[in-house]
Design brief:
The chain contains eleven helices and 19 strands. It binds zinc ion (2 copies).
């Protein structure tokens, strides 16, 4: 029976000694194994994972490796469990934790910075200088679950209390997994200055971050918000989430369309979420002079950038990693106030045991899948649940 020294548990939430966990072998190879249930340390809790969303970055990690960094190396064949967009119920408290109670539902941010480097002290814990140093005698307390430490494709995981976001009972498990996605969009807009009310914003790339970027920009008062992409079904969801205009770039020139839709001049901000090789140069031409661009996605290869255009026009370019500066809390506030309906990007739910099927749906966009969620309980083994 799970009863580690110094850890508070409750009879209401009995915890087994071992759990089911998906483990990454060779690239693309996942197998369901048994692992010991991890033990929360100081400032950590143990979560029973109730739902996990699959992210494009999970697919990168599973099939290619980076940006995961396990013991300083590739994540393959290291007994590593991926998955980072999860939510669950607090079932055990590490020593001295009284900020959360057992039984509380929470969703999680990915990154617990070391808390002691310059960037962590600035709230930029996703850019922690001790990134990945959480093993053996170089353990700096940094964790990025599903990137540098075990993640959420399992039944239980430990999380630093700084990564927890309390959620209302009214918020479904599936919706709660989307807080970190909306939080990433919120972080991008925060880094651009945050005050986007009345400012024009273009969002390029209608993946989950781009779609929720539209929703967050609109909730922050941006006007107009223009979404560009290649798939009409996703652009339609962008409209539902508040986009004033959508542009299908297979039918129209993206730069010309964005400029035309903003009264002939470029927009104030671009949130780049496509990772397309030409995306930076297009963004540079979409903004007006002095405008700002936030890059939230990346192409696989190095790409040439028109620096002269950036310099001549005094354009600001930012890169963001994940969800810093407590942006998830601001995103959750919008979601709990129903300022937008993030569940519009959730399309499918599968049981945890069917993770490979869920991954295939996410990767191959089967049935126009966008956000695919897996759950350890409450979904019957044979059935997939398409969101309404
Ligand atoms: Zn993600
Ligand atoms: Zn740090």
């Amino acid at each position: 029976m799970y009863a580690p020294a110094g850890v508070k548990t409750s009879r209401d939430y009995p915890i087994p000694d071992n759990m089911k966990a998906w483990v990454l072998g060779d690239p693309g190879e996942l197998s369901l194994r048994e692992k010991p249930v991890p033990v929360p340390k100081k400032a950590e809790v143990l979560l029973r994972i109730d739902a996990v969303a699959i992210c494009a970055t999970d697919l990168e990690i599973i099939y290619h490796g980076p940006p995961a960094l396990i013991r300083g190396g590739m994540p393959h064949n290291q007994n590593f469990t991926p998955g980072h967009e999860y939510m669950g119920t607090v079932v055990a408290l590490g020593p001295a934790v009284d900020e959360y109670r057992i039984g509380q539902r929470v969703t999680v941010e990915i990154h617990a910075g070391c808390g002691q480097c310059k960037r962590c002290r600035e709230g930029m814990y996703t850019a922690c200088h001790n990134y990945g140093l959480n093993y053996g005698d170089v353990d700096k307390g940094h964790r990025a679950n599903g990137f540098t430490t075990d993640g959420g494709f399992c039944e239980y995981q430990v999380n630093n209390i700084n990564t927890l976001v309390a959620i209302l009972d009214a918020m479904s498990d599936e919706e709660a997994t989307l807080v970190v996605t909306a939080g990433t969009a919120m972080y991008g807009l925060t880094e651009l200055g945050g005050l986007v009310a009345g400012e024009s914003v273009a969002v390029t790339g209608p993946g989950p971050i781009g779609l929720l970027g539209v929703a967050v920009a609109k909730a922050l008062g941006a006007q107009p918000v223009i979404l560009t992409g290649t798939r009409d079904n996703r652009l339609r969801i962008g409209r539902d989430l508040g986009a004033d205009h959508v542009v299908n770039v297979t039918k129209e020139n993206a730069v010309e369309a964005v400029r035309r839709l903003n009264g002939g001049k470029g927009v104030d901000y671009v949130l780049e979420c496509s990772g397309a090789p030409n995306a930076v140069n297009e963004a540079v031409r979409m903004v007006n002079r002095g405008g700002k661009i936030c890059l939230a996605a990346f192409p696989h290869q190095e790409t040439p950038v028109d620096i002269a255009e950036i310099v001549r026009n005094n354009i600001y370019v930012y890169g963001i990693r994940g969800e810093g500066k407590s942006a998830t809390h601001r995103a959750e506030a919008f979601m709990s106030q129903k300022r937008f309906d993030a569940t519009k990007v959730h399309t499918h739910t599968f049981p945890l045991d069917d993770l490979p099927t869920a991954i295939r749906y996410a990767k191959d966009r089967v049935e126009d899948a966008i956000k695919v969620v897996v759950k350890a309980r409450g979904v019957s083994a044979a059935q997939k649940v398409a969101a309404e």
